[in-house]
Amino acid sequence: MSARWSKLQKEFYLLRADGLRFDLHCSVFRMASQRGSADLPRYWITLDGETIWDYPKDFIQIIHPQRANPEHYPYQTDVPEISELIREYIDTPKAELLSKQFEKDHWGLVNILRAADKRIGLRRLPDLRKKTRNQAARKVIEARLRHEKPDEGTNNGLHAGTKHRAGETKPC
């Protein structure tokens, strides 16, 4: 799983907004006891070092008919489905990012990924913020808006012949 996971993680990081301290993690922890051992898979997302999304912790009490029953964790988990969802998101064309319905997103993950994705520019982030109640996604949006302010003297980040400094123009 680690080789596949690191490849998936790297592919997502190519889409991550520049300068955003957003990290996507997956790990398996070994739990040993006198009766045996079990692997405990975990996904989590950090923003500026703070965990903003955590599977299974955030989903233990949530039962959905299309998800693994949380009572059976760690023997049944949603980890393969979460990885498949991340793959589906990465493979989604830019033009469909905000309109596509990700039917298997039972964890609120897609809006967090959208918020971190540089393919969704600053001008579209307020629209995403209006459409989501997901607090983790909103934190990512706010972080991007704080850190990616458009250059002064430009038209909302567009550089088509606008002035940057006195007498200078940036080519189209």
Lay out the secondary structure.
Blueprint (H helix, E strand, L loop, with lengths): L1 H14 L6 E12 L2 E12 L2 E6 L23 H13 L17 H8 L8 H7 L3 H13 L25
Antiparallel strand pairs: 1-2, 2-3
Helix pairs in contact: 1-2, 3-5, 4-5
Q: Can you give a write-up of this model?
A:
The protein is of the alpha+beta class and 172 residues long. The radius of gyration is 19 Å and the shape is globular. It has a three-stranded antiparallel sheet. The model is unreliable at 152-172 (pLDDT under 50). The chain has helices at residues 2-15, 79-91, 109-116, 125-131, 135-147; strands spanning 22-33, 36-47, 50-55. Strand 2 (36-47) and strand 3 (50-55) form a beta hairpin.
Structural class: alpha+beta
Give the mean pLDDT. 83
Which spans of ≥5 residues are poorly predicted at pLDDT below 50?
152-172
**Major beta sheet, specifics?**
3 strands, antiparallel
E-strand count: 3
Proportion of residues in helical segments: 25-40%
Anisotropy-based shape: globular
Number of helices: 5
Kindly provide the radius of gyration, computed on alpha-carbon positions and rounded to a whole number of angstroms: 19 Å
Q: Which strand order does the major sheet show?
A: 1-2-3
Helix and strand run: HEEEHHHH
What portion of the residues fall into strands of 2 or more residues? 15-25%
Distance between the termini: 45 Å
